[in-house]
Amino acid sequence: MDNKLRIAVQSKGRLYEETMELLAEAGIKLTAVKRTLLVPSRNFPVELLFLRDDDIPDSVANGTADLGIVGLNEVLEKEKDVEVVKELGFSKCHLSLAIPKREDYTGLSWFNNRKIATSYPVILSHFLERNGIRADIHVITGSVEIAPGIGLADAIFDIVSSGSTLISNNLVEVERIVESQAVLISPRRRHLSESKREVLDELLFRFDAVKAADGKKYILMNVPRNKLDDVLMVLPGIKSPTILPLANSDWCSVHSVLEEKKLWEIIGKLKNAGAEGILALDIEKMIL
């Protein structure tokens, strides 16, 4: 029985780049470049099907692909019979309503009887309906942000990442509607074979190991034994720091894992507590 998983992924853009990075960090090597529609791995039982992002939910729902990696925004917009297996934590963005800076925004009622340009009419219509807003939705497939400037719409509903596109088009974000990120999806009603399920479990295990290491640093230091208790009070290790003897019995080596955002704060405290020779290393994967 064929246990090879076919995963539909975006063929270009930021999500493509970050998906390829995740797969590489998970040890999955491809046999060809992305220009090929279907690319197998040479060391893991998966093959990638490169599609446009808005085609991925349908390809998973209809069985063309076993799984898909796509933005949650596309899953919500297409409303196909798929479910989220795992949030992947990258390509984060949000869908927001934005209006020209010159406008005096008074709340959601501002959108009544206005024209809103968007590439996400389904998500927008659901939001407007839930909030009792009557507006004219104008569907645009690209460059939504220019619509108010050329008189095509009064406002926009679009993806926002850094916000720079809004600023450059004299728009201001007034309502954040949906938080999105890359997700792994599967069909809701069609189950994987046992052999493919085993491959998926291994894939998820690798993804978790990569994600667990993200934003972490492995630190090593030498500590006088008479200062060990003081140093251990500083360390917020995953479970308990590793303590190893050194050739000089008055000293020991202490190993632990820290969150990168707290690294410099904790290193300062470690030095004050008596630690010396502190070394901070990147972590590629971490098995919890």
From TrEMBL:
ATP phosphoribosyltransferase catalytic domain residues: 52-207
Main location: cytoplasm
Enzyme Commission number: 2.4.2.17
Function of the protein: Catalyzes the condensation of ATP and 5-phosphoribose 1-diphosphate to form N'-(5'-phosphoribosyl)-ATP (PR-ATP). Has a crucial role in the pathway because the rate of histidine biosynthesis seems to be controlled primarily by regulation of HisG enzymatic activity.
Cofactor: Mg(2+)
Record's subcellular location: Cytoplasm
Domain spans labelled Histidine biosynthesis HisG C-terminal: 213-285
Listed Gene3D superfamilies: 3.30.70.120, Periplasmic binding protein-like II
Keywords assigned by UniProt, alphabetized: Amino-acid biosynthesis, ATP-binding, Cytoplasm, Glycosyltransferase, Histidine biosynthesis, Magnesium, Metal-binding, Nucleotide-binding, Transferase
Membership in a protein family: Belongs to the ATP phosphoribosyltransferase family. Long subfamily.
Source lineage: Bacteria, Pseudomonadati, Bacteroidota, Bacteroidia, Bacteroidales
Pathway(s) where this gene product acts: Amino-acid biosynthesis; L-histidine biosynthesis; L-histidine from 5-phospho-alpha-D-ribose 1-diphosphate: step 1/9
Name this protein carries in UniProt: ATP phosphoribosyltransferase
GO biological process, one term: L-histidine biosynthetic process
GO cellular component: cytoplasm
GO molecular function: ATP binding; ATP phosphoribosyltransferase activity; magnesium ion binding
Domain of life of the native organism: Bacteria
Catalytic reaction(s) noted: 1-(5-phospho-beta-D-ribosyl)-ATP + diphosphate = 5-phospho-alpha-D-ribose 1-diphosphate + ATP
Pfam families in UniProt: HisG (PF01634), HisG_C (PF08029)
Activity regulation details: Feedback inhibited by histidine.
